[in-house]
Amino acid sequence: MDSFVVYDLSFLVLFLIGIVVFLSLKWKNVKREGILFLYKTQIGVNAIKYVGEKYKKLIHVMGYFAVGIGYILMIVMTATIFWITYTYYKRPDVVQNVKIPPLMPLIPYVDRMFSVSFLPPFYFTYWIIAILVIALVHEFFHGIFARTYGIKTKTTGFGILGPFLAAFVELDEKKMAKIENFKQRAILSAGTFANVLATIFFLIIMMLFFMVAFKPAGIMNYDYAYSILPVTAVTAINGINLQNNSFHNIVLGLDKNSTAQVSVGNTTYVVDSNNFIEQLDYTNDSLFAAYYETPALKAKLTGIITEVDGIKIVSYEQFGEILSSSKPNDILTIRTLVGKDVTEYKIKLAEYPGNKSRGFLGIGAVPVSYNNKLIGMVAGWFTWFKDSHVYYVPAFDGEFVKFIYDLLWWLVIINISVALMNMLPLGIFDGGRFFYLTVLKITKSKRIAEISFKTSTYILLFLVLLLMFFWGKSFWS
Q: How far apart are CA 120 and CA 223, in angstroms?
């Protein structure tokens, strides 16, 4: 997709020129509020009025869902902020893997700015489409919920801060302050509710698109057959008998960049010297992982397995069926893919342990793991429809398929991110006012509600500052 970057950057330049020209022509209608330039219009006001009045019963029901989801997201996101802060404090290695600062606006090419491998490309085209979709559904729901509860939308429009855009609906705030507490909370949480619905919608579209536009073309995420063994069972390392030698001295003498042979009884295993050393604490309770000397290990089989004896591999089940029908001493021709490089192996099978009539290659699927628990959790949520051990390729026009799939991925991620962030009990978000109204409803005291609102805001701002400090410290140390 690198060829697309030229077109994308050209689009960015044209967009910025368009913003400057628009502001020049419409300057009289642009008002400055703080650091934002706001352009107010009546576009969409009639649509908000129509939907808000025609579907009152449905929107009233949706209001309960919106408020309920608002509380769930508020609790989840607040707990997440505390958890991330603790993680950043305890695990600087996690911070270094994530790389992106915690206080960082989502901007085009953020993946390249910080060389983040776990994110797909984030082009300006993706960014502008995501902003338009997210802002429109978010603000439209604010407007229709308000209209249902008798609050008019005075104007709509968008705000400009450099290249950054934000849509808005201007409601009659004085009238809104006079309606029931619950209705105010429903209006405030309506935008978040809309982003949750958009997340579900685009996740379904992404799943359906993936099923149509991608096909399996190999298997990956496998490892050589291994066993977990206790240190006390080791009888020799690299042929050196441990009865008359110091275990500690032998281990220290291993070449960390090589492998070592470890004997347990009459069986010899192979270990990666560096991993072997790291797993040991030189106590009787220490365990380590050791590979069997299998045909796959001896051949140093690696990469995505795409073919076996000319048969294209599309699943572990199919691969297993081929192996189960093989015999000892059969020679399999296995093709693998590493990047764009294809390698062909001719591997002679051994006897399967416990079944001498079956061939044994000596690999198996392993669980997919991530260096960062949060990244792994998010990846699991949004890739549950994929088999993590299968390598997929576009079924047609690869560049176009990948472009659309990545766009849908970003729409899902950004929608749920906006929904979560917006419900933080922080002054600048809808969640701040939502939290204030909740405390007011419970205590019936404006003073307690205001103190609670200010306290939550200060605590969260302090946590954000801590996050930035821990982020910076992880790279300084």
A: 26
> Which of 85-99, 298-312, 337-351 is the least confident region?
85-99
Whether residue 371 contacts residue 94, with contact meaning beta carbons closer than 8 Å, is answered with yes
Give the separation between CA 325 and CA 321, rounded to whole angstroms: 6
Across 291-305, b (16+ Cβ under 10 Å) vs e yields bbebbbbeeebebbb
Residue 275 scores a pLDDT above 90:
no
Same-domain status, 250 and 159 = no
Share of the chain above pLDDT 90, in %: 49
Confidence band for 369, pLDDT divided at 50, 70 and 90:
low
CB 87 within 8 Å of CB 444: no
Q: How far is CA 90 from CA 100, 101, 202, 338, 395, in A?
A: 17, 17, 35, 35, 44
C-alpha to C-alpha distance for 452 and 459, rounded to whole angstroms: 11
- 354 domain-assigned: yes
CA dist 218 and 307 (Å) reads 7
CA-closest candidate to residue 426, choices 471, 457, 402, 452:
457
The answer to the question of residue 286 being in a domain is yes
pLDDT of residue 240: 81
Last residue of a domain, one of 263, 293, 323: 293
pLDDT of residue 125: 93
Percent of the chain with pLDDT over 70: 92
Containing structural domain, residue 287: 226-293
Q: Which of 84, 27, 67, 43 has its CA nearest to residue 470?
A: 84
- Same domain for 193 and 72, yes or no, is yes
